[in-house]
Amino acid sequence: MSLPDQSQAALDWRDGSLPVSTRFDDPYFSLAGGLAETRHVFLAGNDLPARLCPGFQVAELGFGTGLNLIALSLAAGPVPVRFTSFEAFPMSAAEIARALTAFPEAEAAAGPFLAAWARGETRFTLGAVEAEVILGDARETLPAWSGAADAWFLDGFSPAKNPELWGEDLMAEVGRHTAPGGSFATYTAAGFVRRGLAAAGFAVSRAPGYAGKRHMSRGARA
Ligand SMILES: C[S@@+](CC[C@H](N)C(=O)[O-])C[C@H]1O[C@@H](n2cnc3c(N)ncnc32)[C@H](O)[C@@H]1O
């Protein structure tokens, strides 16, 4: 599937640059600072960048604005890594550019991604990261993926509002698409998500959350 000309995300904007999904009634980022949250939850939660090495595969549920991709690219520096994200309701390049104005460091690095996205490309390079965004409902596209991630960013909207991206069957697919020793991190500590990930073969633990959130979750597979 190639990228549609029109946005498929249904958005409201808060404070000019914070996208809020009207479909899911949830913001794309923490109100307390998306880039810092990404670094705390998804990078540190997966022990990145320390584990990065050539060919390292990151996978993500929920591409959104691509902020997590940009943070990975900044963290990876010259190390060639791979990033695959699953997204059902892609934002347009103009919407993504608007959201990134809140994060000057990310905005400054986003040029090649935004140019590719505006051309309708879902495979592109950002810094040393080979990126691919697989469009469609992750419940259908992830089972068909032939890859295996060394680290997962689980970044759906809140489990209460977007339960389809956190269900037990999908978490089992996350487990099935994880390399030996691979890890996951997510901002949520919701019980049903943690149980689904444990059933998928991860040793799940709690860690301090970002900016006043008591807990996030992280884990690794044997
Ligand atoms: C919190 S946002 C992701 C934020 C993103 N990681 C970023 O860096 O901007 C959650 C994303 O999950 C996507 N999503 C929700 N349900 C989905 C599904 N069933 N399959 C694939 N993507 C889905 C939404 O469209 C949204 O882009």
Account of the protein in words:
The chain has 8 helices and 11 strands. The chain is of the alpha/beta class and 222 residues long. The protein has a single domain (11-221), classed as 3-Layer(aba) Sandwich (Rossmann fold). An 8-stranded mixed sheet has the order 6-7-5-4-8-9-11-10, with helices on both faces. A 3-stranded antiparallel sheet has the order 1-2-3, with helices on one face. Helix 6 (138-144) packs parallel to helix 7 and helix 7 (168-176) crosses helix 8. It is globular and about 40 Å long. The structure holds S-adenosylmethionine. S-adenosylmethionine binds next to helix 2, strand 5 and helix 6. This is FAD-dependent oxidoreductase. Pfam families: Methyltransf_30. Residues 119-220 form the MnmC-like methyltransferase domain. GO terms for molecular function: oxidoreductase activity, acting on the CH-NH group of donors; tRNA (5-methylaminomethyl-2-thiouridylate)(34)-methyltransferase activity.
